[in-house]
């Protein structure tokens, strides 16, 4: 059985995953109307779906442990971006915030001796290592590419395989 505090904290993280899904969905929609960003568009849509899956895992876990997963209202995410680089910088920042949220939960699980939740969270700990690395790689590449259109073309072409390598 989850403690009241843990239930609240897990619901808070569920909200964060839902916000991530919305944020990346908005990036996908923006990318879809930019010329030549087919790969990036697919990447953002796929990422948005993954975040929804992360949210669903929290929903099932909270309910299975005798709590109640609250489906939260969502604020409108940022809709437009001055550049692809800006979108990816936001994505990276977002992932760091998600990681911080997961780390706080792990900390709380240990303090409460809630080892079931501690165990459940390990999946997210590992996932965030990959997510942060992927976001950092994308940012590094975009930094290197700058305004080079050829570089951007290759970035868009290769981004889906970059995602799979992780
Ligand atoms: Fe679920 O936050 Fe990204 O991964």
Describe the structure in your own words.
One of its GO terms (molecular function) is ferric iron binding. Fe cation binds at residues 17, 51, 54, 95, 128. This is Ferritin. The chain has 166 residues and is mainly alpha-helical. It has helices at 4-32, 38-64, 84-111, 115-145, 149-165. The model has no long low-confidence stretch (mean pLDDT 96). Hydroxy diiron-OXO moiety (OFO) binds at residues 17, 20, 51, 54, 95, 98, 127, 131.
Task: Describe the structure concisely for a colleague.
Fe cation binds at residues 17, 51, 54, 95, 128. By secondary structure, the chain is mostly helical. The protein is 80% helix and 0% strand.
Could you give the topology of this structure?
Layout: H1 4-32, H2 38-64, H3 84-111, H4 115-145, H5 149-165
Helix pairs in contact: 1-2, 1-3, 2-5, 3-4, 4-5
The chain binds hydroxy diiron-OXO moiety.
């Amino acid at each position: 059985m989850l403690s009241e505090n843990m239930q609240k904290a897990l619901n808070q993280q569920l909200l964060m995953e839902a916000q991530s899904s919305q944020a990346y969905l908005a990036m996908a929609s923006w990318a879809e109307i930019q010329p030549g960003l087919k790969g990036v568009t697919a990447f953002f849509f796929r990422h948005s779906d993954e975040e929804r899956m992360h949210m669903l895992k929290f929903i099932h876990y909270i309910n299975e442990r005798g709590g109640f997963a609250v489906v939260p209202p969502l604020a409108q995410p940022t809709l437009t971006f001055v550049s692809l680089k800006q979108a990816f910088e936001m994505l990276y920042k977002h992932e760091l915030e998600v990681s911080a949220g997961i780390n706080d939960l792990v900390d709380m699980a240990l303090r409460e001796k809630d080892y079931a939740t501690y165990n459940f969270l390990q999946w997210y700990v590992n996932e965030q290592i990959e997510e942060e690395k992927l976001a950092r790689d994308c940012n590094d590449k975009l930094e290197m590419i700058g305004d080079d259109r050829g570089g951007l073309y290759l970035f868009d072409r290769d981004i889906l395989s970059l995602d799979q390598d992780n």
